[in-house]
Design a protein that fits this description.
It is a single chain. This protein has 10 helices and 10 strands. It is α/β, with parallel strands linked by helices. The protein folds into 2 domains: about 170 residues, Rossmann fold (3-Layer(aba) Sandwich); about 80 residues, no CATH class. The strands form 2 sheets. Strands 6-7-8-3-9-10 form a 6-stranded mixed β-sheet, with helices on both faces.
């Protein structure tokens, strides 16, 4: 049996008397899109922060690509290929789309701002940046300032910045938040196009998007993963039905299972 790319065992995070993640277990297969859903306050964002290294865990273990990264800082995890795309867009607004991506590539490859720096290396970097921009649907916005982009385009740029780091796995926390229907559809197509190219872990409230995208869905309730499976298995799971009593579960049932 193939080992998961990311494996989480009994992960715990407490804030005083509040337990945000409570012995959470999760396994993510390489090349797949794995969604994490759950009611508000379930601990989803905390779990993503623990996986990325933005927040230390009180106990438990995180294994990524054969490495125990439980106590590893965020930048070291990123160098291994474990990359988080933030819920609040983090871009340089006064720089162009192309410059934003080129800087992200430079951060991975190392600075060439030296007296005898190679003009060819700079040209190659910007050629790579153009390719990334095209990959995320921003090839017509190369010279636009990032702050002038629409909200959806800024999120596309954020995906580009993450892809520039050549990740093995990308962590997304509500990438469709604040988007209109057209922007959401573009983001769904973009994330779907990453399938097989990189592994994706996705926290998202938009159930339509989740069921279009996810190969596997895990349900987090009160910090515990109560169920994992494909779309139909999650819809049919009695524990999930209890967790989503009311309008949320009604919408869960009405969502499309297949793209």
């Amino acid at each position: 049996m193939t080992k998961p790319l990311l494996h989480i065992e009994k992960l715990v995070k407490r804030f005083g008397g509040l337990t945000a993640t409570d012995n959470a277990d999760l396994s993510v297969k390489e090349g797949k899109i794995h969604a994490i859903i759950g009611p508000n306050g379930a601990g989803k964002t905390t779990l993503i922060a623990q996986i990325s290294g933005a927040m230390p865990s009180d106990s438990g273990r995180i294994t990524f690509s054969g490495h125990d990264v439980t106590k590893m800082p965020m930048d070291e995890r990123a160098r291994l290929g474990l990359v988080r795309s933030y819920q609040i867009t983090s871009i340089f607004g006064r720089l162009s789309v192309l410059d934003n991506i080129a800087l992200a590539i430079q951060a991975i490859e190392g600075s060439s701002f030296r007296f005898w720096s190679s003009a060819r290396s700079e040209k190659e970097r910007y050629e790579k940046a153009q390719a990334v921009a095209q990959r995320v649907g921003l090839s017509t916005r190369l010279n636009h300032l990032a702050q002038a982009l629409s909200h959806g385009e800024q999120r596309q740029l954020e995906v580009g910045l993450a892809l520039a780091s050549r990740p093995k796995i990308l962590l997304f926390d509500e990438p469709m938040a604040g988007m209109g229907p057209d922007e959401t559809e573009r983001m769904v197509r973009l994330l779907d196009s990453l399938r097989g190219e990189t592994t994706v872990v996705l926290v998202e409230h938009d159930m339509d998007a989740v069921f279009k995208l996810a190969d596997t869905i895990s349900v987090l309730v009160f910090g515990k993963v109560i169920a994992s499976g494909n779309a139909q298995e999650i819809k049919d799971n009695p524990s999930v039905k209890v967790a989503y009593l009311g309008d949320d579960f009604q919408h869960l049932n009405q969502s499309q299972v297949t793209p």
